[in-house]
Design goal:
Blueprint: H1 5-21, H2 23-28, H3 34-63, H4 72-96, H5 100-117, H6 130-138, H7 140-154, H8 162-182
Helix pairs in contact: 1-3, 1-4, 1-5, 3-4, 4-5, 4-7, 4-8, 6-7, 7-8
Amino acid sequence: AMAFSFPAIAAALACTRETERGSYEGLLSTPIRPIEYLLGKLLPYLTLGTAGTLLSWALACWWFRVPFRSSLGDYVALTAVFMLSLVSLSLLIGVTMASQRHAIVIVVFLFFIPSFFLSNLIQPLERGSVMERVLMVTLPATNYVDISRALFLKGASVRELQGYTMNLLRISGAAIAASLLLFRKKVA
């Protein structure tokens, strides 16, 4: 889950880079709408991150010999939903931060550190606890670690994982809505 954070970091940096370099002002003179701007930032990073799924899947299966008992299509689709949530959150950070330095610090604290320590990867969370419920609705990696385990080891289907998928879609929707609300179509 942590390796998939790199496209999210790049998306946040792309947004803040425009502000730092002054190209954002040129963008404001165009008739582009906020949703078009955000989709233009979201889609390339979503596509690249999802394409990287195939490399990570091949590495896990052939190099590390992790058994894969589900459908590759399900794995790619659910990874795309996970990537959507990551990139959506990073766009929210990108449209609110004025500098790349601030954006990268926020992204590292939101994605890397919690993804490593709070995602069921190292230490299992107590099922049904308040902490687990909070992390499931705020941290995409917590959902994705469980999705990956279920797909690789249990042969689960998309239908069986719809609770996790809905959590990721809720995170994405909230982040995109907040990005649209906070998108500034004026020079600060």
